[in-house]
Amino acid sequence: MSRTHTTLALGLAAAGALTLGTVSATAAPLPSAGSTTVTPAGHAFKATLSGKATFKAGSVTVTCSVSVSTGTVPAAPGNHNPAGPVSSPISAPTYSSCTSSMAGVTPTVTTSGAWQVSMQNGAPITATMTVPAGGLVLKTSGLAACTVVAAPTAAASVPGAWANGAPPSLTFTNASVPVKVTGGFGCPTSATSSTFNAVYTVADTTDPAQQITVAP
After folding, report:
1. 102 contact partners, CB below 8 Å, separation of at least 6
2. Which is nearest to 143 in space by CA: 181, 95, 107?
3. How far apart are CA 96 and CA 90, in angstroms?
4. Rounded to two decimals, what is the model's pTM?
5. Which of 115, 135, 160, 193 has the fewest CB atoms found within 10 Å of its own CB?
6. E strands, 7-152, where?
7. Residue 42 backbone class (left: φ over 0; alpha: ψ -120 to 50; beta: rest)
8. Contact 55, 35 (CB under 8 A)
9. What is the pLDDT of residue 97?
């Protein structure tokens, strides 16, 4: 189900590198992921933007001051993974109160599909938010009519960092996601990726006296 908002696209994600071995050399195995537990099990949460989020594609930057997403920690025993991350489905983030670096341009974004966030305990604790293929479409109107599709051919993951606290926070710093840009004059059609910066605070909405926590 799609939702349209006057805003900016959430720029997200990161691709892994593929390493090929040769007959004369073998790549060293990657270290195993550690144990992760997210608590309280089964509790609902709400992530709210703290400050402003920025999205940049080419020379165009959009800044938003309101963004929200919700989700639920998996019920036990799904909230624990002895050798990897714990994943939770989340609502497609909404964005509003946005401005563009292009004068006379209004951005509108439609989000859809299955979004997800995964937590991996460690030092630091990491978080990966996944946007589905084509799950975010940004269109601009006014002096420039552009269309930006995030993750145009496959789901894309934006890497972030989680910090336990009261409240805990989720930070994305210069996160990258592939995009496809179409349109006429003023549109950054040569851009193939975007960068996203934002900090979210996370609240336990089942029991506001508790905190969502990531641990071994």
Report:
1. 60, 140, 143, 144, 186
2. 107
3. 18
4. 0.82
5. 193
6. 36-39, 44-49, 53-57, 60-72, 80-81, 86-90, 94-100, 105-111, 115-120, 125-131, 136-142, 146-150
7. left
8. no
9. 85
